[in-house]
Design goal:
heterodimer, A: 1134 residues, alpha+beta, Aldehyde Oxidoreductase, domain 3, Aldehyde Oxidoreductase, domain 4, 4 domains, 5-stranded mixed beta sheet, 44 strands, 23% strand, globular, B: 166 residues, Ubiquitin-like (UB roll), DNA polymerase, domain 1, 2 domains, 7 helices, 5 strands, 41% helix, oxidoreductase activity (chain A), FAD binding (chain A), FAD-bd_PCMH (chain A), iron ion binding (chain A)
Chain lengths: 1134, 166
């Protein structure tokens, strides 16, 4: 009986799908305190004074810790001396925004927040380099003393593999380029969370922590607390995703433990999403400069590379991430030689950490892009070129790998077949492209002492149940399930008879954890070995009982030719059983691999190597720059898939994560601080963003692997970057070399390709001279002055630690009068409050009273008045309005459908949506900006990343825009807004509602009561089109076009552009030009382009939005007046 | 007019009293005051869907819903799990969860979609409409397609069962 290869359900599926498993924050320990962390607001500063006395005095504060609570000079071990450099809390200096300075434990989250706020830190802020380029400048501040010989270079590797000269002679066709893979976040759904409970009697600490590797947590925590490894006891707990981030310490575990030791009570530290994005360790950004040379037959002969790896401010695993990254050049392909230089560069930014793929996706982007570039130069199909260059099986590689099985060729052929590669290449559909990329990854790396060892235990109980014990941690990979399959197979029982215990320092044997794709190989091998040895023990007992050596274990019994005995009974019979349990522990030691050793450049890190080829079909929208993945095939050589469903899950999940990095994800920094610290601003794939990835398991069997299995979890994230870049090039002839491939890059490149340039003639527009002048001064020092000094004169927002606001009082008004009579400066109107609680966290003076409109019956309905006008109550939800207008004004419904999520649309009201705050990731994420903090503060968008969110028209001191898509579409139907105040009402045209970005022209005490759409306007025909970075995101740009009259000519045209100006922007000149004309997309585009050229004033990097919004206008027109609609004259014009 | 103070909620069919400020998010009421911890908190900003619960029939983000504005019965995964046993089994068969942290929110939202499937889901392109509807529920593990496939399978099976029972 074998369960290997079976699609077994996850062993804990019933609990896991009923909310019945406990993650760390779900646990209840009596007396648990809440821990919070004070973090550095500066990228680099010396700490002049750190005074925690006021925090300690607050009632309910039970412990405050600083570096003084640790041994002098305490540092995380990480890769060991001399690379150990990070203190548990700042040791006199902070080197990145978000570095831990102090931590508190208190009776409640509110008290803990108040205590954090009460800690006084005096910093002496110093300039420090924030990018590798800056760090390498001669006069840059040195962040650490390093031994590489170069300032700010933590590790310098110069490696030659093979015969570089021979490669140089033979490689007659070369391509050269620089490729950038950005820093991206794991964004695990469960933030890093630890519950620590100090046991003074035993002198030990128990930890429930979201980790992939309890052993490493115990190692670092014990080292920093100055106690023995055995005194840190990790306990089993559910883990909500890891992807590498939780495979080593995440810097909060030891703080929880130290707080618990000091307070003498359990402490829960749960990182916020903001901390997770803004302070935790993301993927290392790589800049890979590569030259690939091939001979005339297309055989790759030489790689020459220069790598810059952004280390961030501390080493962590940077040296080994760089090592694994550069090995990419010497492993999958077999050139004559490789010559490379690689620098791990310190910058005053959050340090990089371990992330699925571990350096390989970054370098693979360069290699696999260049294979395509070579193929084009040589006139060879890129898939064929790869087939020519795949290495043989059971052969060494330049970097020292001893490859065992490889079915890379079959993976490539699978992509060819599944994608209909040859037909699609021949079809040449305009703006559609296909791309392929290959990859390779080990099955566990011998990266540390004892990483080649895995212990496991098996218990058999007298009731016949079996328990697997292993010290690794299943963060969602299905490891526990496949280990149950392994044990069940060896013992001849059902998987449902197996329980698995993991992670527990006292109950599970030695295991380094689930990282480096070692879970399946190492624990699969050790559990298999333990189960086999247990089977031998059981058979021996059975042999005595049954009187024959011919015993087989099956169906929960030991079976001989004539007789059988239950496993449980064998336990009772065994002399070794204790209390009805027969236990066996064993150790698996991997043979034939070599540990990473300093000073050595070649080693066989893994017992086996996995391969994959991914193929993508994309459509590139030339009008908006949007890349849509139409089809995606991921073919993987995994050896034997122990559980194909779990394997496919790893393939698809990894591919989609890789596609996220290819198409949208990037951590964006300003002044060293992460700008996009929320899911809202982090363009990772949502469900509707991608098609189904089609996983193909190219089944095989590797002699090294347990049951023939190789790794899969990391392999799948490696090829997507280059596969998409190659497909985009195939589609539109534009080679994007820096991920993510966002619409700005596509449209900018296409404009260059087509030789288009917009001329805004600012010298002829005196109204823009002032703004132009100010913008010109920003890079010349104005930004720095405003940021460093001006912000101190402001309202005092934007600094972490500003006073937490009191909880507001929420009132539900029942009538208009009840609402308006209470409104004022201290009492603001709200609707469904989907963003009110979030927004007030960064407001300088949040209103103490919020009065909701949702309890006013008259505001909850949509009615038609005597003149036939539609009156929409301000408290009608977005979902209700969308449903109501679906037949009448479908483009309005479509606009609403594109807002946020169904859950938000179920709650958010029409009034609340129109009144929502401006869209700007600096403003929304707590920067002390001009609008937030006052006139002496800078607009961070001028110098910062303004590609997507900021104005291209009419930007002034603030570059933000009004985010409401609803506002944009309502403007296109000439909606009116009825505003109420005590004792009166007034009616505004919607164009008059906004006085600035997300700012209403209402007085305190006024509130939106209803929206009115006139009877004639309900007959408008129109369309709405929107470009956003993910499904449900705010518009990067949007366009609505409506007109009256269905006789074939446009009458009373409205063209409203969203997210391009501080307020919804009417293209009035184009409207006039189109009045009375027949529908023509080309005429619209020509008129609109001319108007945008005359009126726009983009920032340096957002001019592309003008092309995008003009393209969206075309799409809106096509939507409202579909091609073939009577009166369209494009056929003639084309 | 409702003032702050003790308030009464109906949760999973039970009437409960909670003594909390009106601005307390519903999710915290459920998790901390009532011990219903299937509902997860992953962003506390209404952006990820892990905290999805039903208020009345509608799925909402309980992390940004102040308890003062809740005026209909609340249903969490604890109250739905049995009703959607078929969805849960399909999740298990297709690998529709890995770490499981987003799963309660996904399942609650799916339960709402299925209970009004004629309005929420399109027969024409079922998978596409499921994906659009579930785009407010972030999953970082599965790449979504096993979730989509599981819901499709349940829709089809329930339709077939209904046809048969006629």
């Amino acid at each position: 009986m074998t369960w290997i290869g079976e699609r077994v359900r996850p062993i804990d599926w019933e609990a896991r799908t009923a909310g019945g498993v406990q993650y760390t924050a779900d646990l209840d320990l009596p007396g648990t305190l809440i821990g919070k962390i004070l973090r550095s607001p500066h990228p680099y500063a010396e700490i002049i004074d750190l005074d925690v006395s006021a925090a300690e005095r607050l009632p309910g504060v039970r412990a405050v810790i600083t570096m003084a609570d640790f041994e002098p000079g305490a540092r995380y071990i990480h890769r060991g001396h001399p690379l150990s450099d990070r203190p548990p809390l700042a040791d006199g200096v902070v080197r990145h925004v978000g570095q831990e300075v102090a931590a508190v434990a208190a009776d409640s989250a509110a008290i803990a927040a108040a205590a954090i706020n009460a800690i006084r830190v005096r910093y002496r802020v110093r300039r420090a380099p924030l990018t590798p380029g800056d760090s390498l400048r001669a006069r840059a501040r040195r962040l650490h003393e390093r031994t590489s010989g170069e300032p700010n270079v933590s590790v310098l590797s110069a490696i030659d593999w093979g015969d570089v000269e021979a490669g140089r002679r033979a490689g007659v066709v070369s391509v050269h380029g620089r490729y950038v893979y950005p820093s991206v976040s794991h964004a695990c759904m469960e933030t890093n969370t630890t519950l620590a409970s100090w046991n003074a009697e035993r002198g030990c600490v128990e930890l429930w922590t979201s980790t992939q590797a309890p052993w490493f947590i115990a190692k670092e925590v014990s080292h920093l607390l100055g106690i023995a490894h055995e005194q840190v006891i990790c306990r089993e707990v559910a883990v909500g995703g890891g992807f590498g981030s939780k495979s080593k310490a995440s810097e909060h575990e030891v703080l929880a433990a130290a707080l618990s030791r000091k307070a003498g009570r359990p402490v829960l530290v749960e990182l916020t999403r903001d901390e997770e994005f803004g302070a935790n360790k993301p993927r290392h950004r790589f800049e890979t400069t590569l030259t690939t040379s091939a001979d005339r037959d297309g055989i790759i002969r030489l790689f020459e590379a220069d790598l810059l790896v952004d280390n961030g401010s501390y080493n962590h695993m940077g040296s080994s991430v760089m090592r694994v990254g550069l090995i990419t050049l010497g492993s999958m392909y077999r050139p004559d030689g490789v010559s490379l230089t690689s620098r791990l560069v310190d910058t005053a930014t959050q340090p990089g950490g371990q992330f699925r793929g571990y350096g390989t996706p970054q370098v693979s982007l360069a290699v696999e892009s260049q294979v395509d570039e070579l193929a084009e130069r040589l006139g060879v199909d890129p898939l064929d070129l790869r087939l020519r260059n795949t290495g043989p099986e059971f052969a060494p590689t330049l970097c020292g790998y001893e490859v065992t099985t490889s079915r890379l060729g079959d993976c490539l052929e699978s992509v060819r077949m599944e994608l209909r590669w040859d037909e699609r290449k021949a079809e040449r559909i305009p703006d559609r492209g296909v791309g392929v990329a290959a990859g390779m990854h080990g099955s566990g790396a011998f990266a540390y002492e004892q990483a080649n060892r895995s212990d496991a235990a098996i218990d058999v109980f007298s009731d016949g149940r079996v328990r697997v014990r292993h010290g690794s941690a299943d963060a969602g990979t299905g490891q526990n399930t496949i280990l149950a399959q392994v044990a069940a197979s060896e013992l001849g029982i059902a998987v449902s008879d197996v329980d698995v215990v993991s992670m527990d320092s006292e109950r599970t044997p030695f295991e380094l954890g689930a990282w480096s794709s070692r879970g399946t190989h190492m624990t699969g091998s050790s559990v298999g070995k333990a189960a086999r040895e247990m089977a031998d023990m059981l058979r021996a007992v059975a042999a005595q009982k049954l009187g024959t050596d011919a015993v087989e274990l099956r169906d929960g019994r030991a079976v001989s030719e004539n007789d059988a005995v239950d496993l449980g009974d064998l336990v009772e019979l065994s002399d070794d059983a204790v209390d009805g349990c027969l236990s066996h522990e064993t150790s698996y030691l991997l043979e034939g691999t070599e540990m990473i050793t300093p000073g050595k450049d070649r080693f066989n890190l893994s017992p086996s190597y996995a391969f994959a080829a991914h193929g993508a079909v994309v459509d590139v929208d030339r009008r908006t720059g949007k890349v849509s993945v139409i089809d995606y095939v991921a073919a993987h050589d995994v050896g034997t898939a122990i559980n194909p469903t779990a394997t496919e899950g790893q393939i698809v999940g990894g591919a989609v994560m890789g596609l996220g990095a290819a198409l949208g994800e990037e951590l964006i920094r300003e002044g060293g601080r992460i700008v996009n610290t929320s899911y809202l601003h982090y363009a990772m794939p949502r469900s509707a963003d991608l098609p189904s990835v089609r996983p193909v398991i190219v089944n095989g069997s590797d002699p090294a692997g347990p049951y023939g299995a190789k790794s899969v979890g990391e392999m799948s994230i490696i090829p997507p970057g280059a596969a998409i870049a190659n497909a985009v090039y195939d589609a539109v002839g534009v080679r994007i070399t820096d991920l993510p491939i966002t619409p700005d890059k596509i449209l900018t490149a296409l404009a260059q390709q087509e030789g288009r340039r917009r001329r805004h003639r600012l010298w002829r527009r005196p109204s823009r001279w002032w703004v132009s002048g100010i913008r010109a001064l920003y890079p010349l020092g104005l930004h720095t002055i405003l940021h460093r000094y001006g912000t101190k004169l402001g309202r005092g927002v934007g600094h972490r630690g500003s006073t937490p606001a009191e909880e507001p009082r929420i009132i539900r008004a029942r009538t208009d009068d009840e609402l308006t009579s209470q409104l004022g400066r201290d009492a603001r109107p709200v609707g469904g409050m989907t963003d009110a609680l979030v927004a007030r966290r960064s407001e300088a003076r949040p209103a103490p009273v919020l009065i909701s409109t949702i309890g006013i019956p008259a505001r909850r309905v949509i009615t038609v008045d005597e003149r036939g006008a539609l009156r929409i109550g301000a408290a009608v939800t977005l979902a209700e309005l969308a449903d109501h207008l679906r037949d009448r004004l479908p483009f309005v419904s479509e606009a609403i459908d594109s807002i946020a999520s169904p859950q938000i649309r179920n709650t958010a009201t029409v009034g609340g949506n129109l009144a929502q705050e401006k869209r700007c990731w600096f403003f929304r994420n707590g920067f002390a900006c001009y609008k937030r903090n006052g006139a002496t503060s800078p607009c961070y968008a001028v110098e910062g990343d303004h590609r997507f969110q900021h104005a291209v028209i009419d930007g002034h001191r603030c570059q933000a825009v009004t985010p409401s898509d609803l506002g944009t579409v309502l403007a296109s139907v000439d909606a009116e807004v009825v505003v109420g105040r005590t004792g009166g009402r007034r009616t505004l045209r919607i164009g008059e509602l906004y006085s600035g970005p997300g700012e209403l022209s209402l007085e305190p005490g006024e509130v939106i009561l209803e929206i009115v759409i006139g009877a004639e306007d309900l007959d408008r025909q129109g369309g709405f089109a929107k470009l956003s970075l993910y499904h449900g995101d705010f518009a990067t740009a949007s366009a609505t076009i409506t007109a009256l009259g269905k006789e074939g000519r446009l009458r009373d045209v409205r063209i409203v552009l969203g997210a391009v100006a501080p307020t919804p922007w009417r293209a009035r000149e184009t409207e006039r030009a189109l009045e009375g004309t027949v529908v023509s997309r080309l005429r619209l585009r020509a008129e609109l382009d001319a108007e945008l050229d005359r009126i726009a004033h983009p920032l340096p990097r957002n001019g592309w939005k003008l092309d995008a919004v003009a393209g969206l206008a075309e799409q809106a027109l096509e939507q409202g007046w579909p091609p073939g609609w009577r009166g369209s004259e494009d056929a003639a014009l084309c | 007019m409702t003032a702050d103070g003790t308030r009464s909620l109906r949760v999973n069919g039970d009437q409960v009293e909670v003594d909390l400020g009106g601005a307390t998010p519903l999710a915290e009421v459920l998790r901390d005051a009532l011990g219903l911890r299937a509902t997860k908190l992953a962003c506390r900003r209404g952006e990820c869907g892990a905290c999805t619960v039903l208020v009345g029939e509608r799925p909402v983000m309980s992390c940004v819903t102040p308890v003062a504005l809740v005026d209909q019965p609340v249903t969490t995964l604890e109250g739905l799990a049995e009703e959607i046993a078929d969805v849960r089994a399909e999740f298990a068969d297709r690998g529709a969860f890995q770490c499981g942290f987003c799963t309660p929110g996904q399942l609650v939202h799916i339960a709402a979609l299925l209970s009004r499937s004629s309005e929420t889901l399109s027969d024409e392109d079922l998978a596409e409409s499921i994906r659009a509807q579930l785009s407010g529920n972030i999953c970082r593990c599965t790449g979504y397609q096993a979730i989509t496939a599981a819901v499709c399978a349940v829709v089809w099976r329930r339709e077939a069962d209904e046809m048969e029972s006629r």
